[in-house]
Amino acid sequence: MNNQRNEITSLPMTTYCPEVKPTVRSSVVKALKRVRASQPFNYLATSVVHACQQVTGVQSEFVIKHLHRVGSVRRRLPNGRRVLLWSQGDDWVSTQVYWRGWNGYEPETVPLFFRLSTQAQVTLDVGAYVGFFSLLAAHANPKGKVYAFEPLPSVYRRLRRNVELNQLANVQCIPAAIGEIEGEADFWHIDAETPTSSSLSREFMGGGENLVCTKVAVITLDRFAQTNHLNRVDLMKLDTESTEYQVLRGMVETIQRDHPIIISEVLPGRGGEAPLEEILRRYGYRFYHLTPAGPKRRDKVEGHPEWLNYLFTPLSSDEVDRL
Hints:
This protein is α/β, with parallel strands linked by helices. It contains 14 helices and 14 strands. Strand 4 (145-149), helix 8 (153-165) and strand 5 form a beta-alpha-beta unit.
């Protein structure tokens, strides 16, 4: 395990592709963002507005969209533990958690994921971003083990920081992308500290003058499970911006052996729906769309423009209802 971790960490992960050059943002926008993020202005503004919203019970979507929390975000979880995120006001997850509560980000998904995590001995967070789902899983079951995969160096540093702030010894962070074939690949993203979207797929990311790519390590989950002696995988959260089916193709042995519960993003019209369905149906999985009204059984995997996540499991509808 240590050998593999050292090999991954030593790869030239900050090598940028020369094909696309970033643009400079307007000085006005930069100035406004500096003021919004400056301290103590941000701390005082967000704290006062949040307290007012708590008293009145009224949430302002304008505030949530434009007044991002800079610094620490703490929220109590159902088991009494506290999850802690640190942000520069640049990641959407922390903003949602600050203003809406621990389950305010992807509310159709997070409470279910937390409940599933309480019983999971091994959880994989593929496309971990700043680590919110990894933190939830580790707090939900302190005796379980969580593996968080994030390839982009700047985001990986934020992930590590959040894990360390939560003092979680049961989370291992791996600076690699997960795919179908091992090697090295271009990882596409906006030129920002914590871009909200990034992918191995250039087609998914489209064009734009501020699009760049970073060389990253790509590994398969079957190889990772074998190398790290994972005798069982219970739960997986999957969000890789249209390459989710490639992740599953690289872990068919693990799927066949363990039938882990999978919570996966499914983007409509991005070419991943049919491959996901084909792979999972082969191993006896059922498809449940995660909606505000709960998991809804679907005969086919079809993305939704607003509610993006699916629950993939061999469990029956009655068993899912009991979750």
